[in-house]
Design a protein that fits this description.
This protein is an all-alpha fold. Helix 7 packs across helix 9. The longest helix is centred in the middle third of the chain and has 28 residues. It is globular and about 55 Å long.
Length: 285
């Protein structure tokens, strides 16, 4: 069950990143975050009311509040780092987020077997290579590296927090709803600040209503990924769930190849293969 839900997490996050990347080609990144997360919050609110999730309210929701505050900071740092570039360095470096939940799992006493340890090592190397790291000829600003490390720390922290935010399915819906509400509040405040500084909030020509389903799919895929990761981490070793859940760059690269006809470099193909090998080791270990 852990492997299934963790791999579902990678699939959903990979598709969400791909869709979000397409939307940010025309719409400011902050607007994409706020709109997509707002749609997800509305849908989750309906689900919470329908399932009686409010009855699950308790102290654990503070973990969801913290995740809702940390998540946007990590996302904005990541987008800023991508703007400073190069993406071939920033994207793989962000996968260091896996170190946070893995470290927490080891601190709590999880001890994967030798095969699983090998799988973790192989999968992490595969994920980094799948991002297509530019090993030379790519000047990197120190600020871009620092921002990427902040983003990685933030993403990893969200992994840990959302796992602790609930113990039941209905409680998970409520936790995800609370997280999204604070995502929107934090992101909205940042968007207002950016607009006051003169940055555009909408694309040229305005935001088309026909684009809202795409925003909704990105937001809901992100929500679903958080949910499947929480389930994976609660029903198995966090170390395994975190590594398998971090394979999303492979999904994004494959989606770009399939829909945009982007060429996959040899190093990316090798990374995808290593990630698959690491997954098999983790699943069979």
């Amino acid at each position: 069950m852990t492997a299934f839900f963790a791999l579902a997490t990678s699939l959903l996050w990979g598709l969400a990143d791909f869709g979000g990347g397409l939307l940010t080609r025309r719409t400011p990144a902050l607007t994409v975050v706020v709109v997509s997360q707002s749609i997800a919050a509305v849908v989750l609110g309906v689900i919470v009311v329908a399932t009686g999730g409010w009855s699950e309210a308790g102290p654990r929701l503070w973990f969801a509040v913290a995740a809702g505050l940390v998540g946007p900071v990590a996302l904005f740092s990541f987008y800023k780092a991508l703007a400073l570039g190069p993406m071939g360095v920033v994207s793989p470096l962000a996968t260091l987020s896996v170190a946070v939940p893995v470290s927490v799992g080891l601190f709590l006493g999880e001890r994967p077997g030798p095969v699983q340890f090998a799988g973790i090592a192989v999968a992490v190397v595969g994920v980094v290579l799948a991002g297509g790291p530019q090993l030379r000829g790519a000047p990197v600003q120190r600020q871009a590296v620092l921002l990427t490390l902040v983003a990685a720390l933030g993403f990893g922290t969200v992994f840990v927090l959302i796992t602790e935010a609930s113990t039941t399915v209905t409680g998970l819906f409520l936790a995800l709803f609370v997280q999204r509400v604070f995502n929107v509040a934090t992101g909205g405040a940042a968007l207002c600040a950016a607009v006051r500084r003169g940055a555009p909030a909408l694309p040229e020509g305005g935001l088309a209503w026909t684009a809202l389903p795409a925003f909704g799919l990105v937001g809901l895929a992100d929500v679903a990924a958080n949910g499947t990761y929480a389930i994976a981490a609660q029903h198995g070793p966090v170390t395994v769930a975190a590594v398998l859940g971090s394979l999303y760059p492979v999904v994004t690269a494959v989606a770009a190849r399939g829909f945009l006809r982007e060429r996959i470099r040899a190093i990316q193909a090798a990374g995808a293969g290593l990630a698959l090998v690491g997954t098999l080791l983790l699943a069979t270990g």
